[in-house]
Automatic annotation (TrEMBL):
CDD domains: Peptidases_S8_Kp43_protease (cd04842). Keywords: Hydrolase, Protease, Serine protease. This is Secreted protein (Por secretion system target). It comes from Mucilaginibacter defluvii. The keyword Membrane does not apply.
Length: 678
C-alpha cells in the first residue's frame, strides 16, 4: 500500500512538472513576441481602414461583398489596393493519407511509429484560417477542443471539410484526419487574417490557409469576371510578391518555429468564357466599377499555363501546396503521378519554385457542416493543403519524441519536406510539382536515420563565414544535400507591375558539394522557359537549395560547403541542412579575418571577396593566374569601411589563382581555387 501511494505521488509530481514544462516552452523570445504583437496592431488598423473604404464603394462599383457560390466557394471583399481596385479572397475548392504516405507513420503503419497528433507538445499549436469557421458539432470532432475566435463568421462547409482532413478522429475511417488524435484546433475566418496570424504566431507550429486572392478569371455562379487590369492580357497578381506575402514572410521570420501552409490555388479551373462570349470586368484602369464588357476578345490569358499562383502563395518562408490526383497506393513512379487539372502552376515573378510541394486534393471525403454525421467529397488545392499541413504536424511530433520535446525550426521542417519529396514531373524541382509529392515515409525515416544514414542540422552562418561538412557516402547511389532558411521579408514591387524579375531574396546563401572530381552546383529553374527541366548553376532566388549527386561512390568523402553572397542583413543567417546518402565524418568553419576574405572555397561559378577599406579612394581588383597573367582587372572608387564584390570565374580553367586588391598603400592578396562545376 505504501509503495502504491508513493507511485501515485510520483505520478502526480511528474504530471505537474511536465505540464509546467509544456506551459513554459517558448517558440519565440520576448523581443520577437513584442515585434509580432506590434506588427499585428499595425496590420489590424490598416485592414480596418481598407475594408471600410471598400465597403463604402461596393454598391456603386458593383463589387461582391460576400458570396458563397453554388459549388461552396466563399468570396469575400477584403479592401482596396493603392490603385483603388478591390481585393477579394476566395477559398481554393472547385465545383489523403495514402497519397502522401502519411499512413506509413500512423498507428499500424509500416514504420511502426504510431504518430497521430496526440502529443502534449502539439496542444493549441495547430490553427486554421478559412472563409468561415468549423462546425464543431460534427461527430468527428467529439472530444476535441476547437476554439473559435470572437466575432467570427459562422460555420461553413469549406472550413469544416478542411478541418476534418486535419483532425477528424475517424468515426468514419474513410474520413480520418491526418493528425486524427490531435486534441485542439484554433479556428479563424480569413477577415483581417494577417493581423490575426501575427498576433497568434508566437504560439503556433502549423497553420492551414486554403484560400488566396482572386486573380485573373473567376466564375461566381452567375457570370465570368476578369479581375486583371483593363488592357493587360494577364493579371499582375499572378506570381506577384505583394504586401500580404511580405507580411507573411516577416511574421515567419519573427516566429522561427511556425510554418504557414497555403494552398496554391485553382486557377487552371477558371479559364474564362469562350472567345466572343459576354464577360465582366473593370470599366477602365482609373474606374474600378465592374461592368459588362461585351464579347470576350482574343488575347486575354486563360489562366491555364505557368505563372498563376497569386500573392500570398508566393511568399518565401511558407509551404505552398499544389494538388495531384488520387494515389490510393501512394506514388509508385513519376509517370504515375498526375497534377490535378485545376492546380495552379508557378513560377513566382522572380523565378522562385512554387508550389513547394504537392498533396492529394482530388475527390477528398471529409466532414460536412450540414449535419453531425454527414460527409462530403470536395476537390481543390484547398483539400491538398490540409493533407500536407496535418501530415507534417506528425513530423514535429516524431522529432520531439526523439529530442526531449524540442521541435524543428520551420526552415528545418520545410527543408525536410522538400528534401524527401517523391519527385514527379521533370527530374529535380519544376514549376508544376515543385519538389514533388509529400513523402511522409521518407521524411520520417530521414529523422530516424539522423546521424547514421542521414544528417539533419540547424546552424547559423556568420557574415563571410564558410561552413564545411565532410560526408562519407554510404553506398554507390544518390547523395544529396538541401539547405533552407527563413529569410527576411523582401521588397514589394509597385502595384500593377508585371513579371518583375528582381529577386526577393534578402540573404543569399549557397550550397555546393565538392570532391576530387569537381564541384556540383544546386538545381536552378528558368522562369523565361518554365517548362524546361532544372539545370545546375548558381541559385540566386530560392531560399531552398539542393545539390543532388545521382551516383556517389561508396566510401568516398564529399565536402558540402555553405556560404553566402554579399552582405548578410544583421550580419548572420540561421539555416538548416539536411543530407541523405552519407554520414557526417567532420566539420570545419572558416571565419573572416582582418585582411581579405574570399569564398566559397573552392569556387566554380563566382567568388565573393570582402575587405575592410582603411581609407576612401581608388581600389584595384585583380585576378592573376599562376603564369602571372591578369585574367580580371577592375578599378573603382570606394568608401572607407567594408567592401564586397562578386567576380565571375565560370569562364576560367580549373586551377589556382591569386586575388589581389590594392587601395592606396593597402595591398591584400589571397589564393583562389577554381574547380569547374559538373
Amino acid at each position: 500500500m505504501k509503495r502504491l501511494l508513493q507511485a501515485i505521488v510520483y505520478c502526480l509530481i511528474f504530471v505537474c512538472f511536465t505540464g509546467e514544462v509544456f506551459a513554459q516552452r517558448k517558440l519565440v523570445n520576448d523581443v520577437q513576441k513584442r515585434n509580432l504583437e506590434d506588427f499585428s496592431k499595425q496590420l489590424s488598423a490598416s485592414f480596418t481602414a481598407s475594408k471600410q473604404r471598400a465597403l463604402s464603394l461596393a454598391a456603386s462599383k458593383n463589387w461582391i461583398t460576400r458570396k458563397i457560390t453554388p459549388g461552396g466557394r466563399v468570396i469575400v471583399l477584403q479592401g482596396v489596393n493603392s490603385l483603388g481596385f478591390p481585393r477579394f479572397l476566395r477559398t481554393s475548392n472547385t465545383e489523403a493519407a495514402a497519397a502522401t504516405r502519411t499512413n506509413a507513420v500512423q498507428p499500424g503503419g509500416e514504420l511502426d511509429l504510431d504518430l497521430s497528433g496526440s502529443a502534449n507538445i502539439l496542444v493549441d499549436e495547430l490553427a486554421i484560417w478559412d472563409g468561415g469557421t468549423v462546425f464543431r458539432g460534427h461527430q468527428e470532432f467529439s472530444g476535441k477542443n476547437i476554439t473559435i475566435a470572437a466575432n467570427q463568421t459562422g460555420a461553413i462547409e469549406h472550413t469544416t471539410h478542411v478541418a476534418g482532413t486535419l483532425v477528424s478522429r475517424g468515426a468514419n475511417p474513410l474520413a480520418k484526419g491526418m493528425a486524427f488524435n490531435a486534441t485542439t484546433l484554433r479556428s479563424f475566418d480569413f477577415d483581417n487574417d494577417v493581423s490575426e496570424i501575427s498576433n497568434n504566431a508566437a504560439g503556433l507550429l502549423i497553420s492551414n490557409h486554403s484560400y488566396g486572392d482572386i486573380a485573373g478569371w473567376d466564375f461566381d455562379g452567375g457570370r465570368w469576371t476578369w479581375y486583371g487590369l483593363p488592357g493587360d492580357s494577364e493579371d499582375y497578381l499572378f506570381g506577384f510578391y505583394d504586401e500580404r506575402a511580405q507580411a507573411w514572410d516577416k511574421i515567419a521570420f519573427e516566429a522561427p518555429y511556425y510554418l504557414i501552409v497555403e494552398s496554391a490555388g485553382n486557377s487552371h479551373a477558371y479559364t474564362g468564357p469562350s472567345v466572343g462570349s459576354t464577360y465582366y470586368g473593370y470599366e477602365s484602369r482609373t474606374d474600378q466599377t465592374i461592368v459588362e464588357k461585351g464579347p470576350r476578345p482574343e488575347g486575354i490569358s486563360d489562366n491555364d499555363g505557368y505563372d498563376v499562383v497569386s500573392t500570398t502563395g508566393n511568399a518565401k518562408n511558407i509551404l505552398t501546396v499544389g494538388s495531384v490526383n488520387q494515389l490510393p497506393n501512394g506514388p509508385q513512379s513519376a509517370a504515375g503521378v498526375r497534377v490535378s487539372s485545376f492546380s495552379s502552376w508557378g513560377p513566382t515573378d522572380d523565378g522562385r519554385i512554387k508550389p513547394d510541394i504537392m498533396g492529394m486534393g482530388s475527390g477528398v471525403l471529409s466532414t460536412s457542416a450540414n449535419g453531425a454525421n454527414l460527409y462530403s467529397t470536395l476537390s481543390g488545392t484547398s483539400m491538398a493543403s490540409p493533407n500536407v499541413a496535418g501530415s507534417i504536424l506528425l513530423l514535429q511530433e516524431y522529432y520531439a519524441r526523439l529530442h526531449s520535446d524540442s521541435v524543428m525550426r520551420s526552415a528545418t521542417l520545410k527543408g525536410l519536406v522538400c528534401h524527401t519529396a517523391f519527385d514527379a514531373g521533370n527530374a529535380g524541382p519544376d514549376y508544376i510539382y515543385g519538389w514533388g509529392v509529400l513523402d511522409m515515409r521518407k521524411a520520417a525515416q530521414t529523422i530516424t536515420d539522423n546521424g547514421t544514414l542521414s544528417y539533419i542540422h540547424e546552424a547559423t552562418l556568420q557574415q563571410a563565414q564558410v561552413s564545411n561538412y565532410q560526408i562519407t557516402a554510404n553506398n554507390n547511389g544518390p547523395l544529396w544535400a538541401t539547405i533552407c532558411w527563413t529569410d527576411q521579408e523582401g521588397t514589394v514591387a509597385a502595384v500593377g507591375t508585371l513579371n518583375n524579375r528582381t529577386p526577393k531574396l534578402v540573404n543569399d546563401l549557397d550550397v555546393r558539394i565538392s570532391s576530387s572530381t569537381g564541384v556540383v552546383n544546386p538545381w536552378v529553374l528558368d522562369p523565361e522557359n518554365p517548362a524546361s527541366a532544372a539545370t545546375r548553376s548558381d541559385n540566386v532566388v530560392d531560399n531552398v537549395e539542393q545539390v543532388y549527386i545521382p551516383t556517389a561512390v561508396a566510401g568516398q568523402t564529399y565536402t558540402i560547403t555553405v556560404s553566402n553572397k554579399g552582405i548578410l542583413r544583421n550580419g548572420k543567417q540561421d539555416y538548416s541542412i539536411i543530407v541523405s546518402g552519407g554520414r557526417l565524418t567532420g566539420t570545419t568553419a572558416t571565419s573572416p579575418g582582418e585582411g581579405l576574405t574570399v569564398f566559397p572555397v573552392p569556387a566554380s561559378d563566382f567568388v565573393t571577396a570582402l575587405l575592410n577599406i582603411k581609407a576612401a579612394g581608388t581600389l584595384r581588383v585583380q585576378l592573376i593566374d599562376m603564369s602571372g597573367r591578369i585574367v580580371y582587372n577592375k578599378t573603382q572608387n570606394v568608401q572607407e569601411g567594408t567592401f564586397n564584390t562578386q567576380i565571375a570565374v565560370n569562364n576560367l580553367a580549373s586551377g589556382t589563382y591569386v586575388l589581389r586588391m590594392i587601395a592606396g598603400s593597402q595591398v591584400e592578396s589571397k589564393k583562389v581555387l577554381v574547380v569547374r562545376a559538373n
